[in-house]
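Suppose a colleague, Dr. K., hands you the sequence of a protein chain of 100 amino acids and asks what its three-dimensional shape might be. Before reaching for any lab equipment, you can write down a predicted structure in token form. Begin with the sequence itself:
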Amino acid sequence: FDLAVWLFGEVIEVQTDMHSATESIGTLRLQRATVRWHLSIESGVSAKRQMIVNGVPHEFTEGFADLHTASYLRILEGNGFDTSIVRPSIEQVEKIRKAP
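The predicted structure, expressed as tokens, is then:
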């Protein structure tokens, strides 16, 4: 969500089409794009990070396995992102988690 908001602008609307204990699917309408998303925490399934823009897939799976760990280390070193930058993504994920 951070990357989508950064690339495509402010969130206009978030819609959750399916929500369970292990996955959520929906649509994020941004200023310059409509993003279909699928989040899953199913055990045994490897992470896949892909963005398709105008029909062209862009793969982010390789090389990003430790992205969160690297970000957390930077935060602990005092070099994290300002809350104003990450707030929009956190708010959207919170809305998704509270969806029926």
